Automatic annotation (TrEMBL):
UniProt record similarity statement: Belongs to the pirin family.
Keyword Metal-binding: yes
Record lineage: Bacteria, Pseudomonadati, Bacteroidota, Flavobacteriia, Flavobacteriales
UniProt-listed SUPFAM superfamilies: RmlC-like cupins
Name this polypeptide is given: Pirin N-terminal domain-containing protein
A Pfam family per the record: Pirin
Top-level division of the source organism's lineage: Bacteria
Domain Pirin N-terminal as annotated: residue spans: 52-112
Keyword vocabulary terms for this entry: Iron, Metal-binding
Cofactor detail note: Binds 1 Fe cation per subunit.
Alphabetical list of InterPro entries matching this protein: Pirin, Pirin_N_dom, RmlC-like_jellyroll, RmlC_Cupin_sf
Amino acid sequence: MKIIRASEKHTHGNQTFHVEILYPGTNLGKNDTGFLTIGRIDHALFKPPGLVPMHPHQDDEIFSYIRSGKMIHMDSTGKKEHLNNSYMMLMNSGSGISHEESAEEDVEMLQIFMRPSENDLPPQVQFHQFENVFSENIWRLVAGNRADSPLKLRVETNIFDIRLQKDKVVEIPEWNEEFINFIYCFNGGIKIGNEIIAKGDSVILEENLPLKATTESDLVLFQIKKDAKYSETGMFSGNKFH
């Protein structure tokens, strides 16, 4: 088990847009700022009249994982959508896409930058209306490369989430030695073995240990194929040590 504490993240922003950036490879002593197919994870607080103006992406798979609040998305494909904690978006930027975001209500979210299996894929933007805001005590597939993924990633990784009530215990879903499990604690806290994982912490699990909630907790799980092919040159998701 490897743990990356919230205090190890890079903090930027102001009163309307505050972001804590996780470059997981940096905290693991690697020569890559990312960790396998994960380029970076931004834990953002975004308040009206906050605006992230139109800007480009290339070869990034960008999942806007919203847990509270509302924001407006616009992009260079002509789409304009109102996003919230049950209506989420994944941008497959491929050969190039631009977008802007503005806050309608106070937003807390993850902007997750994944690495595609190859560069210069066709750009596209996906949206999905989830039936429930939270998946209570059951892992839910939210994005990935499986056929049943609500939002499709173009890399061999699947992303799950769960809201775990206090004292509930769960195991990693569909444990498989071919995958590495990376867990991000969005809210609350869990106990794994003798370790306490708190809000903003991440943990890499290479053994099948149960997770017990010490309080109501929201978790995001990345199941990464160990031999997944991925690009290290994405505009935001790429290796910043290059």
